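user: can you give me the structure for this one chain? tokens are fine.
assistant: on it. calling the predictor now.
[tool input]
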Amino acid sequence: MYAREGFYAIVEGVRKLEGLSASRGIAIGPVFCFPDEDTAEISRYPINGEAVDAEWSLFDTALETSRREITLLLDDRNREQSEILNAHLLMLSDPEFIPRIKRDLETRLLNVEAVLQDAVEESSGILRSTGDAYLAERAVDIEDAFGRVMSHVAALRHGTQGKGLKRSSTTTFIPPGTILVARNLKPSQALSLKDSGISGIILEEGGATSHVAILARSWRIPAVMGVRSFASQVEDGQTVILDADNGLVIVSPTTGQLSAYRVQSAAPGESGKEKETRIRAPSVTRDGARMVLRANIALAAEAEDAIAEGAEGVGLFRSEFLFMGSLNLPDEETQLASYLEAARLLKDTPLVIRTLDAGGDKMIGEQLSLTEKNPLLGWRAIRFCLDRRELFSAQLRAILRASAEGDVRIMFPMISNVEELDAALDVLEEAKNECERRGQAYNRRIKTGIMIETPAAAVCADLLAKKADFMSIGTNDLIQYTMACDRENTLVAHLYDGFNPAVLRMIQKTIDAGTQTHTDVSMCGEMAGDAASVFLLMGMGLRNFSMASSRISAVKELIRRASLADAVECAEAAMELSAAREIRKLVQERLKTYE
């Protein structure tokens, strides 16, 4: 999990720092502090109207040079790297941003470097101001893509184009075997790391969905993100232990810790046969109760990791990240390509695609300029989509067309009443008719479900279940809406607890509604990946769980050691208790019997 800002724990006299595990593994070695991007200010000066065309020509040439440069790089890159470079190409062809540069040149009469810098800073600033980690990472992409353009503008203006002008941070020599430490890395910088021989990555910023994290996982380089102010706490050459399995960084470890971690990292890993056995082991309790474990993914390529970890399909494909990956929204064909990639990787296992869940803390396009007093309660998810029919219809058609090549399913987010579900189903029916009119194949028996994320949906789950093929409990929002607490607000964070009796009753009501109406019920929130929660939820009647791929092994291990009869008895006792702390204590005591 993310560490609290400035959080340090002294254990056995050694400082440990916590962060977010982005790519698992253990690394031991000296740190190398990567320099920040050059911070020298660009020149800013006024121009007259006659110079506008020359300034635009300078920008246009630098832009085209950057596009050609990226296109050449694409010829020798794997899928993950190609996704980054293609995203940069989209940004460098954005139909709104590029013409804006011309307009600003004409109206502001400033040199093109100043105009470009202001435009990039405004766009990236808007993304960062949302407070959403993923959007902040996309801001880095914008700066990276147009930073390339800026460097070519400088080269052209000073007559050094083609003479090897490069940004210094991308040409820094990184000693092999070191653990790279930086505030953040732009994708273009990260692309140069594969063959550098580094043993690990520690970043002060970034998250598990950043391009750097994706690349680190692809290259199997241990990485931890979000270790606040770390670069200022260490010096080049200082030894650290990077425990990316647990999101820990141990500074100046003791001899004993070094020995223990070296033994652990040198220990032979499981053989291919052992891993295959673990992955194929059924998720069945000691007394024969079958559970279904699926994965949550944000990118199509992550479906491959899900299968590798033993997932029985994908229970939540967060499609909004496809919309947030560039400055312009993806069209139907772009979406189709992504959904097809995931469906083909999953083969015949389910792929549940959640329709666009934008808004609140994940804003796109016009939502970014809204000044809603309570955005988490505002124009988001299904509400936004029903008001933007053309956007919604295009996504539904893309999902429908992908369903012709796999077990693809549709899930509507943040449904609060039957009227919203009816409206969404009407748009889906129109999308089906349009596919038929075009002669495009799709699964006419495609399953359609909803997320239970609001108390209103949980209370009326029996009514909603009559019109849905399945329901998936999204505990991340359900907890904060039930407890009326913003989960990002540290002042009320103590209220955000899935073991609160009110939350558990909402979950139980949903499970019971599914049983009564013979509607499948699953859970895709963070509770589904927590072993203690899964034990309690099994006892409450839940049988389908979807979680981060990295959590599947731990949850499966708990299921295989547990008894459903014990879980039922524990759940019955828990529902009689009146406080979250009492319920948590009860569950933890029961789990001790399986240690």
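assistant: here you go. The two ends are 24 Å apart (CA to CA). The domain at 49-166 is CATH 1.10.274.10 (Enzyme I; Chain A, domain 2).
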